[in-house]
Amino acid sequence: AVQLVESGGGSVQTGGSLRLSCAQSGVTFRSDCMAWFRQVPGKEREGVARIGSDGSTFYEDFVKGRFTISKDNAQKILYLQMNSLKVEDSAMYYCAVRRDEFCRLDLSLFDYWGQGTQVTVSS
């Protein structure tokens, strides 16, 4: 069975950093498209960043230059390094996997989801 387990969330002050991890099992990993999404109560889940099987990355404008998505193929772990955090970055963060090399940051394309890890940024 596919399992995605996020960790690394927490509470930080504005300008702080966190690194989220998503440990995966039961997936191909190396040939998958993977991404991070986030959601706040009452709002739709939104894409943050994605990484393709070739290592290519894409970031939404609101995190560009502050967040870095990466992966460890050997350990099957997806990461999201978040720097210069803002209050508006507070959300539940989810990792997602699409079992295909075609990679786009579109909610509907992803096959598997983790349970989420909460990030809270305070001023």
Mind explaining what this structure looks like?
The chain is mainly beta. 0% of the residues lie in helices and 50% in strands. The chain has strands at residues 3-7, 10-13, 18-25, 33-39, 46-51, 57-59, 67-72, 77-82, 91-98, 112-113, 117-122. The strands form 2 sheets. Strands 2, 4, 5, 6, 9, 10 and 11 form a 7-stranded mixed β-sheet that branches. A hairpin with a 4-residue loop joins strand 7 and strand 8. The chain is globular and about 40 Å long. The model has no long low-confidence stretch (mean pLDDT 96).
Count every helix, treating DSSP H or I runs of 4 or more residues as helices. Answer: 0
Structural class: mainly beta
Strand content: over 45%
* Average residue pLDDT: 96
Instruction: Tell me the overall shape.
Output: globular
Radius of gyration: 13 Å
Percentage of residues in helical conformation: under 10%
Count all strands and give the number: 11
Q: Could you give the order of the helices and strands?
A: EEEEEEEEEEE
Largest sheet: 7 strands, mixed
Which ranges are low-confidence, i.e. pLDDT below 50, for 5 or more consecutive residues? none
- Measured distance between first and last alpha carbons: 41 Å
